Structure formats: structure tokens, C-alpha cells
Amino acid sequence: MAINEDHSWKFAQCFGDKGDSDDITEADIISTVEFDQTGDYLATGDKGGRVVLFERNDSKKGVEYRFHTEFQSHEAEFDYLKSLEIEEKINKIKWCKRQNSAHFLLSANDKTIKLWKVFEKSLKVVAENNLGDGPLAPSAGLRIPKLAHHDTIIAAVPRRVYANAHTYHINSISINSDSETYISADDLRINLWNLDISDQSFNIVDIKPANMEELTEVITAAEFHPHQCNTFMYSSSKGTIKLCDMREAALCDQYAKVMEAPEDPANRSFFSEIIQSVSDIKFSQDGRYILSRDYLTLKIWDINMDNQPVQTINIHDELRSKLCDLYENDCIFDKFECVFSGDGSNMMTGSYSNNLHIYNRDTLAETVLSADKSIFKSKKLGSAKNKLGLSRGPGRSGMSTMDDIDFNKKILHSSWHPRENTIAVAATNNLFIFT
């Protein structure tokens, strides 16, 4: 299943093309992308609180996804106690393992998590009436109305709402390998839930100081181990990753294994703390390795070795000298996600100018894909071949100078098919699929 060394990725599909960028509203911007465990379904959530599902449909042309259903998951709310507006934006979607013909998935905004059931529903209509020869006719036997199948629709209903457990913004949800429990993380706490119980959760990590003026770090991401149901990890804005065992104590972080990369004194600057904040962490499917992303680098960790990462890849080293400008335009706070391929042989993360970087684990050879509508249009004209997959040597960054970079276009969210080399990428309001 390893990617060919010629890195022959090809553009497959683009959803949500609206033409000019002037038509795009804030609500249309995709805020999360997630394949299910089979790869046959794909979900996106957007800033308008909508969840859109796509279903795989293999045609003669190859792998294709088609629209399956769409539903409004969250609405904007107002917290009167804090005088805060709670956005409807979907932060995360996680699919539950499929048990029957219905799909179950969790979706979260800043404050509330919902469990949705998505299923096929048969619509029936009355096909035969019982009025017959008139209700008073002596010959008229009583006829029961007959229902006939009229149409099949895809219905989505919220089965559980897990609310009031987070004071701060929820940044992660992760379903346990036991398929019974999940964790949700905000800036300072991680809660453990049972999927069947919506009014009770257990606080398993709490880094809130007694005096908020002493606050030095926040939790940025959390994820369960893919096979060990007692193990999970979380990352912080201080650049650390903590591996926790729920069997150790009620509050797990006291005995956590801490992974932290030693900082190079030569690179120390005013911005060091900001750029070392880990924006995303992922386990490999076998649970042996951890992939972490901070502003400038992608790191691979072996869970048995906590003193330093196994590999560090500089994604855009040329930005290191421009951190002051990036601080002023707020780009330095962008949170890029990262992901392993299903077999763990490749890693992927996003960047600016709608570029996507794919790295081979062994050779560190880099492939840069561009999820840009101009390429999507030029493909129709048959001129996209050269632009699509730029292959580079080990660790060479895909960007040359600051002037070439479009900071308004950024790939923050992406997902890799669990069993094959198909990736889904969110670029503003568009969903790109490459195979």
C-alpha cells in the first residue's frame, strides 16, 4: 500500500465550487474533515454548524464520492451568564464504529457535543383508501388503508446531547477503542464520557491553576490510543505531549509520560513559545508512533522514547526569519492538523498557498499538492499535470520566498483514507479529494 516513489498523486474531485471568492460566506468555510473507519464515508463540518456526509461510489472512472446527506448539527447560542456568543462552528467530527445499518457520529462545537444517528428511512403513502362504495353501503366491507413505499430518504436525528461539561472551548473529541467511551478536551480540562450517558462525565485531566494569573499553558489536542483503551495522550501550548494511563489515578496527568523536544538555543526568540505550541497530535494505526505538528515543524515520536523525536521535518523553515510579520497578521496562531497514512508509511500536513505536504517516512521525500480551484479549472482544460504533484528530495520545503506565499489560503484540515491512498482536504469552502 506504500505510495509509489514517483508520487503519482492525481486530483480526483472537488465539492463546493461556488465560482468567485466573493460569493463565499464565513458559514461556508469547512472547519473539519473526517473519513469513517471503512473509508466508504466522509464527513465535513463547517462554520455554519452544518455537517455534510459523502458516500463512496466506485465507478468506471475510479474512486468517486457523492453527496449522501446534510444536516444542521449546531445552532448559534448565547451564554447569558458570561455574555458570550457561542458559535455554531463545528470543531470536530468523529465517527463511531459501525454496529448496524445506521451510522453514528459525534460532532462538537465550542461547548456542546452531539451524537447523531444517520439512517435510511422509508417514506410511505396511502395507496388504497377504505371508502370503497361509500361508508354507508351495506356491501362495503371495512377496508384498511394500505401503505405503499414511496421513497427512501436519509434521516439524521440527534440521539444524545452532552452539554454543560466544558467551561472553555472544546478542541478535541476522541472515541475509545472499546467503542463505549470517549474523551473531550478543552483548554484546561479533559473529560471522559460514556456514549450512553449524556448527563455525567468524569474529569480525568485538570491543569487549571488555583490562581488564573499563574496560567502558563493550555491543552491543544487529545486522542485515545488506537488499541489500548486505558491510554490516551494530550498536547500543550508548551510543546509537550503527555501520555496518560487511566489506571494510574483519577487525575491521570500526575503520572503521565512527558515527551518534549529540547530547544536549540540558536533559534531562541520572543516567538519561541508561540511556535512550539503543538496544534495537533495523531497516533499511528499500530499505536507505536505519534505525529505532532507545531507552527514550523512536523515531528514523529516513538512512544518508548520520550527524550526527543525520532524525526523532525521543517515544513517552512523560510518563515523563521519572518515571525514578526506573521505575529502581526495573526498567522503565527494558525492551527495546522497532521495525519498518518493508514499504513503509517507517510505523513501529511497543510501549509499556506493551499499547499499540502506529504512525506515518506523512510526517505523523507516530499510531495506538494495544491488544492486550488485554478488547478481544478485548468484540469478541465488539460493543463494541470505539472502543477499537481511537485516531488522533492528529503526535507526540502515546498516554498521559496515570502512573496510567493498566499497567507489567506491555508490548508488546516485534512483526512487520510484508513486503507488506501485517498486524501480529503478542506480549502476554504471546497473539499478536494486526491488519489
TrEMBL record:
InterPro entries reported in the protein's UniProt record: PP2A_PR55, PP2A_PR55_CS, WD40/YVTN_repeat-like_dom_sf, WD40_repeat_dom_sf, WD40_rpt
A GO MF label: protein phosphatase regulator activity
SMART domains tied to this protein: WD40 (SM00320)
UniProt KW Repeat keyword: yes
Gene Ontology terms: cellular component: protein phosphatase type 2A complex
Keywords noted in UniProt: Repeat, WD repeat
Family: Belongs to the phosphatase 2A regulatory subunit B family.
Descriptive protein name: Protein phosphatase PP2A regulatory subunit B
Organism: Circinella minor
